[in-house]
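Thread: quick sanity check before group meeting

JM: Hey all, I'm pulling together slides for Thursday and realized we never actually wrote out the predicted structure for the chain we discussed last week. Dropping the sequence here so it's in one place. If anyone has concerns about the input, flag it before I start.
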Amino acid sequence: RLAALFCVVGPVTSVFALAVWPPMAIAGFTGWLAAAAIIVGTLGLGAWAYRQRDFNRLLLVPYAGLLVIAAGVWLTGGHGSPYAELYVLSLVYVAGIYSRQRIAAFFAVLALALAAPLVYDGWDMHAAQVMSVSLVFLLGLALLVMMLARSLRRQRISLQRLAGRDELTGLGNRRALEETLDREINRAGRTGSALTIAIADIDGFKGVNDQFGHLAGDQCLRGVASALAGETRRSDLCFRWGGDEFVMLLPDTPKSGGEVLQGRLGAAIERSAVVPDGRQLTVTCGFAQFSEGLNVDALIGAADDDLRKAKQVAAARAR
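JM (edit): ok, ran it. Output follows.
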């Protein structure tokens, strides 16, 4: 969208400028035809950019912009042409989006384009001085835009992380779970690797809140979250699904491997999550393994059904 906007702002700006500074210095009336062709071509490039999804190909847009602006400068007389000011648009676009290496390469090409009138119009000391000052100005502007864009990207990443984080436990929240699970399902479907999801529910947690209050309940939730994060592998992912339910994503793990993990989780939770009266917390887990055709909701639903059955078995044994 930014590339397309760049291809619209340039021509629209040029239309107003052409009324004041016609493109007739080199080719006479033919310059108008050339200017019209350039404007139409730039708008067509904008339409292509709007549909384009390849980030690397979009770099063609500002380079094409340099060529178009250089042509406009030539048509309007070279030295002293006001159209050279349009180089700012292409530089701001590149500096705000691309890496330092690509910005440096683009700036070098821009410098050559800016100096082109010194070649086809001949050397002019005053023009060379103006060009040098313009390059210094453009370099400072590029650095400023680059730093501002980097700061905004860092803030955006930080906000995205906060938006996907459960404040109480520090684990990912439900939104993060759904986004991550969707990616993991696509990966498992593409590579054929195993993927297991586990839902852990704290047994009798409502009684903890009712008897000791929500602050004690929150402390228990933190303890369970710490145990889950500590017992899973680095590649595994833990989330607080809601209330006293937690979800673990276990990439490259069959359902049998997840069930083995349950024993370790029980021991870890007993160590890190204790009710104020000294009782140890326990969790019941439900598991489901991804198979072709399952989406996010279906996979979570399968694990939730397994959890419900496990709860029923545990209740029957207690009786």
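AS: nice. The CA atoms of residues 189 and 203 lie 34 Å apart. The chain is about 65% helix and 10% strand.
JM: adding both to the slides.
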